[in-house]
Design goal:
Archaeosine Trna-guanine Transglycosylase, Chain: A, domain 4; 168 residues; two-stranded antiparallel sheet; 7-stranded mixed β-sheet; alpha+beta
């Protein structure tokens, strides 16, 4: 499958939680269940923009922490919800996160927003693809911009078509 040039996407910088590796934990559930819910906590990302991205394929780039090599993964999401998914198809360690929020020892947000993404695929992407990613508003390369900001979420586009694998 080819992702057309200038497709609207979302970039999300994730963090591992304690000894839980974000990508490994999500891939494990995805491989067992065929999909996995990914949770984003914090400031609400524009639902209308997310729906626009979903309409154009639902492409989401996940970027690992610098300590993990700033690796990038192309994912596809097919649904967005703000209440916890009733099916519970998400990594078990999320319960530790919820417990920490309930105790008040996680997240300096008085009323955190939860946004859940139903992820249908996760695949590593190579440097050529990453080099093609630009900030949607400015057109600046992601690799030039990401080190200058602390934001976890960016609206991005690709400036070349992307050929993707059909793997999970």
């Amino acid at each position: 499958m080819i992702i057309d040039k200038f497709t609207d996407m979302l970039l999300f910088r994730f963090s591992n939680y304690k000894n839980h590796l974000f990508i490994d934990e999500h891939l494990s559930v995805l491989n067992n269940r065929g999909y996995v819910w990914m949770l984003k906590i914090g400031k609400r990302t524009s639902v209308s923009k997310l729906k626009g991205i979903m309409k154009n394929g639902g492409w989401l780039v996940l970027r690992s922490p610098k300590a993990d090599g700033s690796k990038n993964y192309l994912t596809r999401f097919t649904e967005i919800i703000e209440d916890a998914p009733e099916d519970g198809v998400y990594p078990k360690y999320y319960k530790e996160i919820f417990d920490g929020i309930d105790r008040g020892d996680l997240y300096n947000v008085s009323d955190p927003c939860y946004q859940w993404f139903r992820i249908e695929s996760i695949e590593p992407i190579d440097a050529t693809v990453v080099d093609s990613l630009v900030v949607a508003k400015s057109g600046k390369k992601i690799n030039d911009t990401i080190s200058t900001t602390r934001t976890a979420v960016m609206f991005i586009k690709n400036d070349i078509p992307i050929e993707r694998l059909e793997a999970k």
